[in-house]
Amino acid sequence: MLLTVILLWALNLSVTKYILEHGLAPLSYATVRYGLAGAIFVALTLVAERTLRIERRHVSVLLLAAVILWVNQVCFVLALDAANASTIGLVIGTIPIFAALLGVALGRERLRARFWAAAAISSVGVALVAAGSGGEVSGGYEGIALGLVTAATWAGYSVVVAPLMRTYSPAHISAVVIGGAWVLIALVGLPATTSHDWELGWEIWVLLVLATLGPLVVTNILWFRVLHRIGPARATLAANLQPFFAALLAVVLLSEPLGIAQLAGGALIAAGLFVARRKATPAQAA
After folding, report:
1. Beta 109-110 vs 281-282: how paired, if at all?
2. Whole-prediction pTM value?
């Protein structure tokens, strides 16, 4: 499940970058994509569970998750608009660091030296993948800063929603959180969306639907299940594989070169995941 999520996320970088360069403005893209995904999750939840009911004690947590996801998606599309996909892929590799720090701060995880060694090895691998991508980091401080916020907010989102998996299904959580995030995205993107020229080619619409169904709908369901099985720290550590798979997909889809440095980086990322194969030690209950 985790590998499927990572592959779809890696593909999403290239697909989103292509869509932004060939027809859609960042906030218009996010508005349409999240509106479609929210409708799908609401329909799936109503068919399977016949209710969108949320317990009162969880309302504030889900609202916080929706706000975090809103910030995450706005920063994601703006970062890809300002910088190239390989740059954002590199910056998103910092997700495990943010997830670990949040987990420790909230007292949910106690991380051993094994995890930090694995994170260091994988981070070196990410750096090699980026170094072998064929150019210097582009997009300037704006794109990098937005990419860092994207990484930090995704880590925060994963930590916040993980405990809710004991009560709700992945589709149920996604229906509520993505629906709430879409309202905020639509409000921010309203000017761009209403003034946009929607006479796009059929291939852009096909890619938009695929970018919604795969990297958003399918990955949300699988990601929640992964969080429930292995915890946020180990799951987000594996996200370091994303830049490497993004490079492989770019070779096939965009005819970009794949050098020795990228291959070496992928090997180091895999080594880091092997080192982190054991679960982090959970904090004892008070």
Report:
1. antiparallel
2. 0.79
